[in-house]
Amino acid sequence: MAGHGANGGGEPGTPVIHVEKLSKIYGDGFQALKEVDLTIRRGEIFALLGPNGAGKTTLISAICGLVNASSGRVLVDGHDNVAQYRQARERIGLVPQELTNEAFTTVWDTVSFSRGLFGKPKDPAHIENVLRALTLWDKRDNRLLELSGGMKRRVLIAKALSHQPQVLFLDEPTAGVDVELRREMWEVVRGLRDQGVTIILTTHYIEEAEEMADRIGVIRRGELVLVEEKNALMQQLGRKELTLHLATPLDGVPATLAGHDLALAEDGHALVYTYDVTRLDEGTGIAGLLADLEATGIRVKDLHTRQSSLEEIFVNLVRGNA
Predict the structure, then answer these.
(1) What is the pLDDT of residue 279?
(2) pLDDT at 136
(3) Is the dihedral of CA 161, 163, 168, 169 positive or negative?
(4) How far apart are the two ends of the chain, measured CA to CA in Å?
(5) What is the pTM of this model?
(6) Angle at 72 between CA 71 and CA 73, to 5 degrees
(7) What CATH number should be reported for the domain whose range is 238-308?
(8) Residue stretches of the chain with pLDDT short of 50
(9) What's the per-residue H, E or C state across the chain?
(10) How far apart are CA 195 and CA 133, in angstroms?
């Protein structure tokens, strides 16, 4: 699927989208976005994570120029999306949540037509590349009404790629699809990124962000509360639990162990020790706990650790605890 990026693009890792103090207040006074600052790097997969109604779609729509921001600005590959709307918009492909209603059009015609909407000359070779990459080539003469839901979603992606954008927005790309199809879509998205397309996806599926993203942004009530490398996010906010299975059950946590963050579990047969992986000095914490257990005469027959998932981190952020 060569040659996706419009006009060649720039170096990977350089900013391709720059959002500055972007706000949106609707006529009824509802503030959907609150001074959002965000930079998207060329060639990354960025997941915008948040509950329904958090402002994900509004932010994407404002970047794409489909919603007029109340204040702030957006640069797409250096082009202001208001003052230079056409140049900015042609660098963007948008895959909406809703399936469009072009039931009687063929796959080939609808994708070709989308390219024409951007004033691009006909390029059958590019359309063929896109359809082959999305495993739609065999369906090119099928009308949309003959396709499965999963194939229709692929057609939406093909349409968004028809004019060779640098940036592809996917708004809830796997909402309402089964697990197998979701994994297929993930493969498609990875393939596009490998071709040099920058991907921004909104999702409320935690595993989608965890599986796909290089970086994650969390939006809550119109505010971007956190933007972080996924791996760093897991390390920074991930808490670990050490479960100690005891040889003899306890009625309560002994006073001699009060200095450790311990809770009794499994009807007294286990102690759960919670700790922050980033705040432990090498060799302390667990070693000190085990020494204190031994000094107290508590025998441990087994232990295992568990790191918090992105889901728990996300729930804490949305609740405002983190």
Answers:
(1) 55
(2) 94
(3) negative
(4) 42
(5) 0.74
(6) 130
(7) 3.30.70
(8) 1-8, 282-284, 322
(9) CCCCCHHHCCCCCCEEEEEEEEEEECCCCCEEEEEEEEEEECCCEEEEECCCCCCHHHHHHHHCCCCCCCEEEEEECCEECCCCHHHHHCCEEEECCCCCCCCCCEHHHHHHHHHHHCCCCCCHHHHHHHHHHCCCHHHCCCEHHHCCHHHHHHHHHHHHHCCCCCEEEEECCCCCCCHHHHHHHHHHHHHHHHCCCEEEEEECCHHHHHHHCCEEEEEECCEEEEEEEHHHHHHHHCEEEEEEEECCCCCCCCHHHCCCCEEEEHHHCEEEEEEECCCCCCCCCHHHHHHHHHHHCCCEEEEEEEECCHHHHHHHHHHCCC
(10) 10
List the domain boundaries for the chain: 6-235, 238-308
Q: Quick one: tokens of 237?
A: 């906010």
- Kindly report the CATH number that applies to the domain delimited by 6-235: 3.40.50.300
| pLDDT tens by residue, 152-182 | 888 999 999 999 999 999 988 887 777 777 8
CA distance readout (Å), 226 to 17, 50, 111, 317, 318: 17, 11, 36, 9, 11
**Residue range 172-220, pLDDT digits in tens:** 888 777 777 788 888 888 888 998 899 999 988 777 888 889 999 989 8
